[in-house]
């Protein structure tokens, strides 16, 4: 049994959460260029309005929100229902990255990271899922990270938050496949964004946000569950997951110079 893809985005109602920059902005623009109807959400309303102004106002809807506030997300979803009657795809891209290592561990920063990166998607899914289950249709796509595959330096909170996304998506897929609702787990490698600009180390296989958007939308169209890229990097990290820990840690220490 294979889950459904979206053959054409034209006319599809898509909610992009995290649309104001980086991968989310690139996805929103790509979807709008494909004649999708796109809800643009993030905290930065000015950035959302700038994006919306580049396209037909009838095809976009700006609904600012903070993913750590469930009531804001619920209000936004109700507006979508009132104006567009429903949703075909939830694309959750919003995320928080605060570099953390054990010698400078900050619990408050860790809590903010988990709240935004793990509980944020859970809040969004809880809101859109009832209608999708009732219709036996719809798509849920969540952007995680290859940092969720296994422990990596400077990701003491970010990595666990993305590991949680992997487990969450896997369980969603298992539960929703018989119900006709598609799940897309998205695991990018290094993408040139405001978040990765914080890194002070060389990022292998770095790609643009536009290339990431292309990979994401292509995977959703094909109905893929596991959308990971760039393959030469994400595939290598998948391989590391199956190695014994002594070998894994030796490789990480040898090749990750931070």
Helices, by number, come to 8
CATH class: Alpha Beta
**Global outline:** globular
* Total domain count: 1
What is the assigned CATH homologous superfamily? NAD(P)-binding Rossmann-like Domain
How widely separated are the two ends?
A: 44 Å
The CATH architecture designation is 3-Layer(aba) Sandwich
Structural class by helix and strand composition: alpha/beta
Encode the helix/strand succession as letters: EHEHEHEHEHEHEHH
Tell me how many strands there are.
7
Rg, Cα atoms, Å: 18 Å
Nearest-integer average pLDDT: 93
**Beta-strand content bin:** 5-15%
Uncertain regions: pLDDT < 50 for 5+ in a row?
A: none
CATH topology: Rossmann fold
Largest β sheet strand count, sense and barrel closure? 7 strands, parallel
Family: Belongs to the short-chain dehydrogenases/reductases (SDR) family.
Keywords: Oxidoreductase
Protein name: Short-chain dehydrogenase
What does this protein look like?
Belongs to the short-chain dehydrogenases/reductases (SDR) family. Pfam families: adh_short (PF00106). Keywords: Oxidoreductase. It comes from Polynucleobacter paneuropaeus. By secondary structure, this protein is an alpha/beta fold. The chain contains 8 helices and 7 strands; from the N terminus they run E-H-E-H-E-H-E-H-E-H-E-H-E-H-H. The protein has a 7-stranded parallel sheet with strand order 3-2-1-4-5-6-7, with helices on both faces. Strand 4 (89-92), helix 4 (107-135) and strand 5 form a beta-alpha-beta unit. The termini are far apart.
């Amino acid at each position: 049994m294979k889950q459904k893809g979206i053959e054409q985005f034209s006319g599809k109602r898509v909610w992009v959460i995290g649309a104001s920059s980086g991968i989310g902005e690139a996805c929103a623009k790509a979807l709008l260029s494909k004649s999708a109807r796109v809800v643009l959400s993030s905290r930065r309303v000015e950035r959302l309005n700038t994006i919306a102004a580049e396209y037909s106002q009838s095809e976009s809807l700006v609904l600012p929100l903070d993913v750590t506030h469930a009531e804001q997300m619920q209000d936004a979803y109700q507006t979508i229902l009132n104006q567009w009657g429903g949703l075909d795809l939830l694309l959750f891209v919003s995320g928080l990255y605060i570099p953390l290592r054990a010698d400078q561990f900050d619990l408050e920063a860790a809590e903010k990271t988990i709240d935004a990166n793990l509980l944020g998607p859970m809040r969004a899914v809880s809101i859109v899922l009832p209608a999708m289950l009732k219709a036996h249709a719809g798509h849920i796509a969540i952007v995680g990270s290859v940092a969720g595959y296994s422990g990596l330096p400077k990701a003491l909170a970010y990595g666990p938050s993305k590991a949680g996304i992997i487990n969450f998506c896997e369980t969603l897929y298992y539960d929703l496949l018989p119900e006709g609702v598609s799940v897309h787990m998205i695991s990018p490698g290094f993408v040139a964004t405001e978040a990765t600009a914080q890194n002070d180390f060389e990022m292998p296989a770095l790609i643009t946000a536009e290339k990431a958007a292309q990979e994401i939308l292509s995977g959703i169209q094909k109905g893929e569950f596991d959308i990971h890229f760039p393959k030469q990097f994400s595939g290598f990290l998948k391989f590391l997951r199956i190695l014994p820990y002594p070998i894994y840690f030796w490789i990480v220490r040898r090749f990750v110079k931070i």
